[in-house]
Amino acid sequence: MNEEYDVIVLGTGLTECILSGIMSVNGKKVLHMDRNPYYGGESASITPLEDLYKRFKIPGAPPASMGRGRDWNVDLIPKFLMANGLMGLFEKRRFRKFLVYVANFDEKDPRTFEGIDPMKTAMREVYKKFDLGQDVIDFTGHALALYRTDDYLDQPCCETINRIKLYSESLARYGKSPYLYPLYGLGELPQGFARLSAIYGGTYMLNKPIEEIIVQNGKVIGVKSEGEVARCKQLICDPSYVQDRVEKVGQVIRVICILSHPIKNTNDANSCQIIIPQNQVSRKSDIYVCVISSAHSVAAQGKYIAIVSTTVETEEPEKEIRPALELLEPIEQKFVSISDLLVPKDLGTESQIFISRTYDATTHFETTCDDIKDIYKRMTGSEFDFEEMKRKKNDIYGED
């Protein structure tokens, strides 16, 4: 381990594994370590079910009615992936006219603007132009555009229109949902990016205790583990490895619920995402519900996993999520956790220590992707270009 690396990565959460893969594809010499013996970190998939009971200190063993423990792969922090997302419940003429406008919108073609300046007109004015009601506005902004607050209403409309367009195009790709979810849970994703890093020369070490991050003259120079020092030019890590360099900005409550039935009024869907906009429940933050089932190889046959999450706003977090839990009744078993929202105190450009943010309450990867792109830009000074990554891969292997 006494070598010098371009980048050392600590932690195997999805953010860290994706960045590890990206840096390896970019030709960097990468060492990736984790104190845990498993991939995923904070976003790990727990199997068997008995381990979930132990993790949450639930007394006794799971009842026999829950099937074999090995049939369960429960994500601690579920996130849906946008597939590329029409609204049968909202076929009012005005809303349809709005969706047609979004579908035709092209920020490079002024002929599609219909009198709206996408760089100056606030989204609030666009809704007004199409005479959309408050309920439809809440749905559009929070369930389609995936905003967490209503601040976007007074911002230029271009980004919001493109977000809604992404949802619509993702929905059109598969017909029923704009989202993807990996079989066997999200724990498969970090391992996939770890393999990508390894293909390009990255070195992985699990179950590796981290004794010290070595900094000289304000800049990282290496990591000490089991008496050995690996030197590096840059360091990527999750907040748990550098608690003195992060600050708490809030908390998230998550409740994992095991059910024996699909969610009411979802046409017995084996998976769904429910977003309760903050305005509907007199809150500042949306409430999210992610539902998956045996169809995704994450639960025993006939069972469903619903995970409710939101940003904590009061001294009684469990009361805050009651509107969501009521949608899920009856619930066989609940697992409740409250975690801190941690963010880096600085950009990392001086120390060259780049810290990811803890996962927020959302049930989609949009904010995680933003964090990945932000860290990449701070590390390299340039925007992340997925097409450039594909080209580099093709230069080496001559294939897509």
Automatic annotation (TrEMBL):
GO MF terms listed in the record are:
GTPase activator activity; Rab GDP-dissociation inhibitor activity
One Pfam match: GDI
Keyword field:
Acetylation, Cytoplasm, Golgi apparatus, GTPase activation, Membrane, Phosphoprotein
According to its record, how does it sit in the membrane? Peripheral membrane protein
Does the keyword section mention Membrane? yes
Where does the UniProt annotation locate this protein? Cytoplasm; Golgi apparatus, trans-Golgi network; Membrane
Biological process terms from the Gene Ontology for this record are:
protein transport; small GTPase-mediated signal transduction; vesicle-mediated transport
Which Gene3D superfamilies does the entry link to?
FAD/NAD(P)-binding domain, Guanine Nucleotide Dissociation Inhibitor, domain 1, Guanine Nucleotide Dissociation Inhibitor, domain 2
| Main location as per UniProt | cytoplasm
> Which family does the record assign?
Belongs to the Rab GDI family.
What function does this protein fulfil?
Regulates the GDP/GTP exchange reaction of most RAB proteins by inhibiting the dissociation of GDP from them, and the subsequent binding of GTP. GDP-dissociation inhibitor preventing the GDP to GTP exchange of most Rab proteins. By keeping these small GTPases in their inactive GDP-bound form regulates intracellular membrane trafficking. Negatively regulates protein transport to the cilium and ciliogenesis through the inhibition of RAB8A.
The protein's name is Rab GDP dissociation inhibitor
Q: Which gene encodes it?
A: GDI2
